[in-house]
Write the structure tokens for this entry.
Amino acid sequence: MQLHNFNSGPSILPQEVLEQAAASIHNFNHTGLSILEIGHRTSWFVDVVTEAQQTIKRLMGLGDDYEVLFLQGGATMQFMQVPMNLLDENGLAAICDNGVWGNKAVKEASIFGPVKVVSDTSNQKHTYLNKQLEIPANATYLHITTNNTVEGTQWHQYPQTNALLVGDMSSDIFCRPTAFEKFDLIYAGAQKNMGAAGVTIVVVKKEILGKVNRKIPAILDYQKHIEAGSLLNTPPVFSIYVSLLTLRWIEQQGGLVEMGKRNQEKANLLYHTIDSTPTFYCPIAVEDRSIMNAVFFLTNPEHEAPFLELCKKHGMIGVKGYRTVGGIRVSMYNALPLSSVQAFCDLMKQFAASHA
């Protein structure tokens, strides 16, 4: 039986990347050593880090005023590392609370300084994005989650602000052409569109650092990581290498323009099937629907369990909704082929025909 991997993260990787990563475990770049056992300060691995950093900047269209870091702790670590480096008691963090991850960002930032929630969409279960933001003039930065993995919403145009703009792009980085230059700091866990779990990328404009009046532990100080070239401590070597392979694959496939074209086609197919099949419904505002994570429900809640059982029987992996939301969630990251979405849509129609 063919499996269709709709996991929300860790998620599907390109087959070529899996094969190359597997080969490197036995013999990395003809060195006779495994990627798992090479020294992280050897020229072999420094070359990997350098190429990955350059490729990220090239895909983002950013120059030398930005630095690319490979860190650990996931996006969850960044919920506190961002305010630790940017916010002090004399500043203000303006944050959009549009779901689970934005809410966590609010809680962590409040440990380091004042926080103003400038968007809270919980009144409608986070099924839309409030774009009418009142950002205080003294805000140090505005933090947004560009794609809400759990709730199924996505910013398709970024807010205008005079404050620094910080983006958690964990679940939609490199999914389409993006105005990365609007952001002063971007972070993303790699395990959705950019590789395997274990590494987090941070892309930061150097000039915004060193402004807070607190002492920062070295391991949490972006400037220290920049000085050390992401080698301040032993990095997740294998995860970074898989990210490099995935970045190469994105470029080889045609870059972000091609990724955007493919992802929009997949999303259009799925949302059209949902909207045209009365057995299913999507409560997300049409203009805010995510092209990465489609969240939807069955009109009759009693049909959810048998539909999920049918999905399991047909190799549809990872389609049960997040535990606090329920329903169905289909994640359509870069490496997911259109054929998997088509197979899922065919199954939806089959189920609808037998449960009308």
Q: What stands out?
A: The chain has two domains: 15-253, 255-354.
